[in-house]
Amino acid sequence: MYRKNDNGQAMDPAEVTPCGAARPSSEPVLEMSFEVGHYDFAAAGEAASKIKQVLRKLGMAPDVVRRAAVAAYEAEMNLVIHSVGGSILLHVDTEKVTLVSCDEGPGMPDISLAMKEGYSTAPDEIREMGFGAGMGLPNMKRCSDSFSIESEVGRGTTVTASIRIA
Amino acid sequence: MTVQEIADILGLRCVAGGKSLEREVSSGYVSDLLSDVMGNARDSGIWVTSQVHQNVVAVALLLDLAAVVIAGGLEMNDDALAKAKAEGVPVLSTKMSAFEAVGRLYELGVRGDV
């Protein structure tokens, strides 16, 4: 939960997300964090559902709400299926909705492979449930106006997706 | 066409969300891959699938689908059914295969690419 910035100085805890990734620097209109558990299929989709409700209540355009909901769902399922557990931070400022999904492992050895449509490391029993089609990250990217992944094997993965409000 | 009209004409059995059948159906989608549905199904669409677990309800809710059709005579899992009922997501069950169900929906004028 403690992270150093690019200059090697310890960052204020307020600047980092619950699992240690850097927070968006803009002043938030609203910020919420959701814990997502490994293999918690019963609760899967609840974070995305809550995010959708919140954005709707804020009066966001239906298209923005929908894209954010899809991106949040894919991020959530990735955490459920692939990570040891993690969290999703919802950060809304006056220009955009940002989702920061982060976990503490296992990390991805090859991000470009993970971004390839149809590529998945999900086990068979997960695929039988209709997950692991290798479309999650590409879906997230398609829904976003800006999208980035940082990952380190043994450390974890941070996926950041932003959707412009106007 | 509303979910109710479609269910009546095709003889689909409503197993959850019976109070929300008056919604107009915008389009149709068929897939058992959840991310495929997330990426491609449309708002107010009707989704034909053979998946029967809770995440089907989560996807239907997030996309604001008008209804889910469980094809092939499959039974939805109890926890999924309970969630669909609690959230008011219409789930229709049919013995028809997915292929047949989609064909019949198309006959009624429901389209995939709208």
Envelope shape of chain B: globular
Question: What is the typical, i.e. mean, pLDDT of chain B?
Answer: 97
Named at the architecture level, the CATH assignment of chain A is 2-Layer Sandwich
Number of helical segments with 4 or more residues of chain B: 5
Radius of gyration of chain A: 15 Å
Query: CATH topology of chain A, which one?
Result: Heat Shock Protein 90
For the record, the count of structural domains of chain B works out to 1
Name of the top-level CATH class of chain B:
Alpha Beta
The CATH superfamily label of chain A reads Histidine kinase-like ATPase, C-terminal domain
Strand content of chain B: 15-25%
Give the N-to-C terminal Cα separation of chain B. Answer: 14 Å
- CATH fold label of chain B: Udp-n-acetylmuramoylalanyl-d-glutamate--2,6- Diaminopimelate Ligase, Chain: A, domain 1
Major β-sheet profile of chain B:
5 strands, mixed
Given helix and strand content, the structural type of chain B is: alpha/beta
User: Which blocks of ≥5 consecutive residues of chain A have pLDDT under 50?
Assistant: none
Q: Helices, strands, pairings?
A:
The complex is a heterodimer of chains A (166) and B (114).
Chain A: E1 30-36, H1 46-57, H2 62-82, E2 86-92, E3 96-103, H3 111-114, H4 124-127, H5 136-143, E4 146-152, E5 156-164
Antiparallel strand pairs in A: 1-2, 2-3, 3-5, 4-5
Helix pairs in contact in A: 1-2, 2-5
Chain B: H1 3-10, E1 13-16, E2 27-30, H2 34-40, E3 45-49, H3 54-62, E4 67-70, H4 78-87, E5 91-93, H5 98-107
Parallel strand pairs in B: 2-3, 3-4, 4-5
Antiparallel strand pairs in B: 1-5
